[in-house]
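Possible regression after last week's pipeline update?

I re-ran a chain I had predicted before the update to compare outputs. Posting the input and the new output here so someone can diff against the archived version. Not blocking, just want to make sure nothing changed silently.
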Amino acid sequence: MKLSDKGLFIKLMDENRVESFLNGNIFFNTDKKFTQMDTTDIVRFDPDESLDESRQIKEISIQDKETREYIPIGGVTSPIKFRYANKGALNIFCVYVHLEKNNSHFDEKNLNFGNSAVVIRDPIEFTKRIHYAANKFSLNIEQSPVEYVDQKKYHGVMGPFRKYDSFKYQNEFRYLLQPGQNEAITLPVGDLRDICFVIPSKDIRQLNIKESHPLNTK
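New output (post-update):
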């Protein structure tokens, strides 16, 4: 996804959460929460959430003290995943990006997020309101589309804006609230009904998004 693409932001959720969202209560969960969810929650559970590095390896060896030769260790598979010690907490808010160019490619696995879809028809204004609310509490917002990488090939830094491509169907855009806390944060941004409308999640494919604007939210 490019920031010049045209599209809409969509927040999928259970219907009992819709009113709170429309009232402007934006829920930033902790990154750790996604690794601790029930494994049956296929769209939310991610044991690799906010990995710091993903490294491909050919072989791991140890050196024999006497011969100085390196002896391969068996049973090690790629990638090797790293999490840095003592790093700060992260709070994340996610939306699905529905792009004009692939309007018909909505993956129905996303329906597991909930039966209601809050369509954010003005992503730029939505982003401005999140920044304004965060500033009032002396917090900062960083946002970006998620980059999806091949777990069998990618070698490098991960972080909160990069995930393995098994989650590519979620077509996710993220907001990162900083400094983070070790518990969920609800950020009040004010009533959102002027830039949102609600439809059943199953009707997402029927959305007409030709009048949408480029998703340049920087």
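Follow-up from reviewer: compared with the archived run. Helices lie at 18-22, 31-36, 123-136. Marking as no regression found.
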